[in-house]
Write a structure and sequence with these properties.
It is a single chain. The protein is α+β, with helices and mostly antiparallel strands. It contains eleven helices and eleven strands. A hairpin with a 2-residue loop joins β1 and β2.
Length: about 400
């Protein structure tokens, strides 16, 4: 019997349907041909090529887990698998797709009026319109209930004031989903970024997610019409449900980053010779590779299991926290180990490892910090909330 493929040791690809496997291969080919030759330069220069939005749209990746309005209507495992393959290229590029589909398009699809869906979703699915999600604030990160952005009625209009921070896609976005406090509770607003009083300032000097745009949003008496509010939701349940959609993509995506680092370490140690033999021939190296292999495959199986639960309508937010917390932690461990195994070459963008390692530091924090997901699990286990 042939030995298992070191790049799919447990044969996980066989657990995918034909359609899911085709999606994985299609996105992997796109990443190999379009992303990998350029991404080190994008990372080094701190840029996201805007034309990628329409290319993602042509592939059907934007809002692919939503149905109708130009969206592909694919299952959760297909979406997760696409996120995995994208993040094997770069976390920042997977972040763009996650934000567009799960944070900007999903709230319109889930809570918007029919007119709002018709106006925005087809163009966003095509990548012609880029969206962002304005929830986090300078003083309200893990505690969204502490947001200070407010919305007040003025005749038939709404007027928004406040500041949002760490907003992916912010300064390249055409439309922002902004969450603000109103008299009746937290409301979501669809804000055209060309509206007077709306400003997006790009965050500079990042050492992580450099091939992704991160911004501060400033809303200074931004006046939007009455039909800009999302009619289907009032309260924090709205933005939190969107975050769960995005976290699901992350728990798959982290597997892609881990797999890329593991494969880079495997290839490097098989070809790099020291003391007259390949690094892969040393016991310490084989021990590290075996540990990395187990972590990558275990994380992939967890992601696939959670994806099947989501497709069955049985996935809970706490289970998403389980996946996000552990898979990102496993990916970070693999990335750091791979960085060391490559020696001095591990710190150069000639190899993907340091880029993944730096990116994963952000993934560890965003869409709920590791500590927040720990407390979500603690509350689910004990029935006791420990957030305050």
């Amino acid at each position: 019997m042939a030995r298992p493929d070191p790049r799919d040791f447990l044969g996980i690809e066989k657990l995918l349907s034909d359609e899911e496997r085709m999606i994985a291969h299609t996105v992997r080919e796109f990443v190999t041909d379009r992303i990998l030759p350029e991404v080190a330069g994008w990372f080094e220069r701190g840029e996201f090529p805007r034309e990628l939005a329409t290319e993602f749209g042509e592939l059907g990746l934007l809002g692919m887990h939503l149905s109708g309005y130009g969206c592909a209507g694919l299952n959760a495992v297909s979406y997760g698998t696409a996120c995995l393959e994208l993040e094997a290229g770069d976390s920042g590029l997977r972040s763009f797709v996650s934000v567009q589909g799960s944070l900007a398009m999903f709230p319109i699809w889930k809570y918007g009026s029919e007119e709002q869906k018709q106006e925005w979703l087809p163009r966003m699915a095509a990548g012609e319109v880029i969206g962002c999600f304005g929830l986090t604030e300078p003083d309200a990160g893990s505690d969204p209930a502490g947001m200070r952005t407010v919305a007040r009625r003025d005749g038939s209009d709404w007027v928004l004031n406040g500041t949002k921070m760490w907003i992916t896609n912010g300064s390249i976005a055409d439309v922002a989903i902004v969450w603000a406090r109103a008299d009746e509770g937290v409301r979501g607003f669809i804000v055209d970024t060309k509206t007077p009083g709306f400003t997006a300032n790009t965050v500079r000097h990042k050492m992580s997610l450099r091939a992704s745009v991160t911004s501060e949003l400033v809303l200074d008496n931004v006046r939007v019409p009455g039909d800009a509010v999302l009619p289907g939701i009032v309260g924090l349940k709205g933005p939190l449900s969107c975050l769960n959609e995005a976290r699901f993509g992350i728990l798959f995506g982290a597997v892609g980053a881990a797999r890329s680092c593991y494969e880079a370490a495997l290839d490097y140690t098989l070809t790099r010779t020291q003391f007259g033999k390949p690094l892969a021939a040393f016991q310490l190296t084989q021990s590290k590779l075996a540990d990395m292999l187990i972590r990558v495959n275990r994380a992939h199986l967890l992601a696939l299991h959670l994806g099947r639960l989501k497709d069955a309508g049985e996935l809970t937010p706490a289970q998403i926290s389980f996946g996000k917390k552990d898979n990102v932690a496993q990916a970070l461990h693999v990335a750091r180990e791979a960085r060391a195994m490559l020696g001095a070459n591990g710190i150069t963008l000639e190899y993907p490892v340091i880029r993944h390692m730096n990116n994963l530091e952000s993934v560890y924090t965003y869409e709920g910090t590791n500590e927040v997901h720990t407390l979500v699990l603690g509350q689910s286990i004990t029935g006791i909330g420990a957030f305050k």
